């Protein structure tokens, strides 16, 4: 189970990183191809420093990685980190599906007559 491989703090970092729409957009973009931090900053109506902070949050959650190329930092999606998110969500989905199946089983059971004699 992925939950066994990630501690609570790691899971919190993943969900906190993905809770912000700008960070989700950055993940989407850098998964399709690498971007420099300055290239990312040009895409958003925020300061370069703000984009750097978003990238740092994503990097701490292992969703992106940075590679220094000359004077620039190239940001790329981290496949393993994204796979952890997918597996974690798959596990949560399996739990909910099991619960829904159990509820369906309970609802399908023959009703008991609560000790009354049927006529």
TrEMBL record:
This is DNA-binding transcriptional regulator, ArsR family. GO terms for molecular function: DNA binding; DNA-binding transcription factor activity. Keywords: DNA-binding. It comes from the Bacteria. It comes from Arthrobacter cupressi. The keyword Nucleotide-binding does not apply. CDD domains: HTH_ARSR (cd00090). InterPro entries: ArsR-like_HTH (IPR011991), HTH_ArsR_DNA-bd_dom (IPR001845), WH-like_DNA-bd_sf (IPR036388), WH_DNA-bd_sf (IPR036390). SUPFAM superfamilies: Winged helix' DNA-binding domain. PROSITE patterns: HTH_ARSR_2. Transmembrane segments: none annotated. It holds the Pfam family HTH_20. The lineage of its organism: Bacteria, Bacillati, Actinomycetota, Actinomycetes, Micrococcales.
